[in-house]
Amino acid sequence: MTLASPHLDILKEELCSLHAELIRWGLVAWTSGNVSARVPGADLMVIKPSGVSYEDLTPDSMIVTDLDGNVVDGTRSPSSDTSAHAYVYRHLPEVGGVVHTHSPYATAWAAVGEPIPCAITAMGDEFGDDIPVGPFARIGDHSIGEGIVATLKGHRSPAVLMRQHGVFTIGKDAKAAVKAAVMCEDVARTVHLARQLGPVARLGQTDIDKLYDRYQNVYGQHPDEHNGATA
Predict the structure, then answer these.
(1) Which residue, 77, 87, 105, 121, could crosslink 142 as a Cys pair with Cβ 3.0–4.6 Å?
(2) Which EC number(s) are documented for this chain (predicted)?
(3) Active site residues
(4) Residue 1: which pLDDT band, with cuts at 50, 70 and 90?
(5) Contact, 21 vs 178, CB < 8 A?
């Protein structure tokens, strides 16, 4: 089946480009990772095909499924993580993008089942909390999705370390979820290196709250700002 929609074509192009970002930032090896996006206004999502190298991905190779993981557009099998992504979209309606990686430093924390403590300002900004650990679950059905939702629902962090597996991130769209995956690996590496130098203390909760509020609500450009505003 083929769905004809200019909006869907744009989403497939964006998703293809975002998979290249996983390589650019060193978050994946071979074909071990994926990005998906919710199709706005429809109970559908777009995800990469299973086992296809990133260099061979094209917009036309992207797979469209419903939110139960059933293929509705595409000629290949979708990612083996499709059920997990679909479960997240069904249970977290605010989520527009999901990313899965096995990025080395963050996955090392997942392997030992330890949350990454919110010990640096960059974590306060981006995550507003420790990056939590989710339960171990086998690949192939929605069990991983259940763990993601149970861990992140009501949590500030857009990233979860699934125990002895890897990283899943969520965002308002696929680009935001990719950014969260990039930043998760960055802080995982930094805090790991810091612990080689000595004990690492978590920031105070008040400081974390203020950092998070500033970054989410003040930092960057805002559409209602006047052109003549100064820094």
Answers:
(1) 87
(2) 5.1.3.4
(3) 100, 102, 125, 165, 219
(4) very low
(5) yes
C-beta of residue 94 within 8 angstroms of C-beta of residue 154: no
Question: Is 225:231 a contact under the CB 8 Å cutoff?
Answer: no
CATH code of the domain in which 87 resides: 3.40.225.10
Residue where the block lists tokens 């203390």: 201
Q: Note down the domain range covering 181.
A: 6-217
Q: What are phi and psi of 166, to 5 degrees?
A: 175, -160
In the chain, beta strands by DSSP E: 33-38, 44-47, 63-66, 71-73, 97-101, 133-134, 159-162, 166-171
Residue 94 belongs to a domain: yes
Note whether residue 224 is domain-resident. no
- For 153-190, letters b (16+ CB in 10 Å) and e give eebbbbbbbbbebbbbbbbebbbbbbbbbbbbbbbbeb
The number of domains in the chain is 1
pLDDT digits (tens, 9 = 90+) for 130-181: 999 999 999 988 999 999 999 999 999 999 999 999 999 999 999 999 999 9
Polymer length of the chain: 231
In a domain, 133, yes or no: yes
In a domain? residue 225: no
